[in-house]
Write a structure and sequence with these properties.
The structure is a homodimer of 140-residue chains. Chain A is mainly alpha-helical. The first copy, chain A, folds into two domains: 4-66, Multidrug-efflux Transporter Regulator, Chain: A, Domain 2 (Orthogonal Bundle), CATH 1.10.1660.10; 79-128. Helices cover 54% and strands 6% of the residues of chain A. Chain A has six helices and three strands; from the N terminus they run E-H-H-E-E-H-H-H-H. Chain A has helices spanning 6-13, 17-25, 45-57, 62-66, 79-108, 118-128; strands spanning 4-5, 33-35, 38-41. Chain A has a three-stranded antiparallel β-sheet. In chain A, helix 5 runs antiparallel to helix 6. The model of chain A is unreliable at 132-140 (pLDDT under 50). The interface between A and B is large, with 53 and 52 residues. Chain A binds a DNA duplex (30 and 30 nucleotides) through residues 5-7, 16-19, 21-22, 26, 34-39, 61-63.
Chain lengths: 140, 140
DNA sequence: ACTTGACCTCAAGTTGGCTTGAAGTCGTAT
DNA sequence: ATACGACTTCAAGCCAACTTGAGGTCAAGT
């Protein structure tokens, strides 16, 4: 199984060298060995990078993403956490859908002022219900 | 129409005073007047804040969000931009869906190593197709 | 008249996720 | 043997989006 150096990884994953080094620095990925000074990667890192990119697009932090992998690079998430994360994603999808609906409303509704259009307001209120964020939000 | 002060806005929107002041500083919202030193807001700011919160959840930057409002606080987006943004959101939804599918796969697939499971890899490759990001990504 | 507490300003600090720059190291092709 | 170019390190810088802290103001209640 031939190894790839950082330039090839960049070319095939779209992730910049500086980013790859940064990911390594924070422990998210690792290069398997060096050829001289040069990092050498196993091809399977590409799969991992796809996953990282995807999870980032899903709004997960690098720390959260790192927590999805076990020692030897295997994806290892306890079932309960998977359910939680999946729910979280569903939540995000709902928000995005709401946002898209709002945009479509703006495109289509003939009301002079959207901000006062009742159906517009209803859409927004609906999206609020998911984040009551009362007095002391658990800022974690 | 009675005015609200910052504490009430916080209570009803879940947006902290420091954040509200920051939003004002960057021109995203404005308080209509002062009572002594205290900012007074029109109740309709709450609708605007809902929209801001929603758009933020959709991954839009404050600058982009600011661009969606006209001078007098009305939502004013050229149709073409609405289409673009809606497409962008659809894109994000697809990514999130892919991510959720990956998670479900991990929960269900009996393969010893997901990273090598062909159907797992297929899902990831599919998500890659959307961001080829060749040599010089147009960093805008 | 005084106290209280919710607000205020302004500058500086924080976090996450990178990027940039200067200076150095190597393997490969000539 | 030398030059080239792709890599390397390390520290510092950058951006967005806030948050924090010190010190100040003010209206309303007693």
């Amino acid at each position: 199984m031939k190894l790839l150096d950082i330039g090839e990884i960049t070319e095939r994953s779209g992730v910049k060298p500086s980013t790859l080094r940064y990911y390594e620095e924070v422990g998210l990925i690792q290069s398997i060995t060096r050829h001289g000074l040069r990092r050498q990667y196993e091809p399977q890192i590409l799969t991992k990078l796809s996953l990282i990119t995807l999870a980032k697009a899903g709004g997960f932090s690098l720390t959260e993403i790192a927590g999805m992998f076990s020692e030897k690079g295997q994806l290892q998430i306890p079932r309960e956490q998977i359910r939680e994360r999946a729910d979280l994603i569903d939540e995000q999808i709902k928000e995005l859908t709401a946002l898209r609906n709002v945009l479509h409303h703006v495109a289509d509704c003939p009301a002079p002022s959207h901000m006062e259009c009742p159906s517009f307001q209803r859409m927004l209120k609906a999206s609020d219900r998911r984040k009551p964020a009362k007095k002391k939000p658990p800022t974690k």
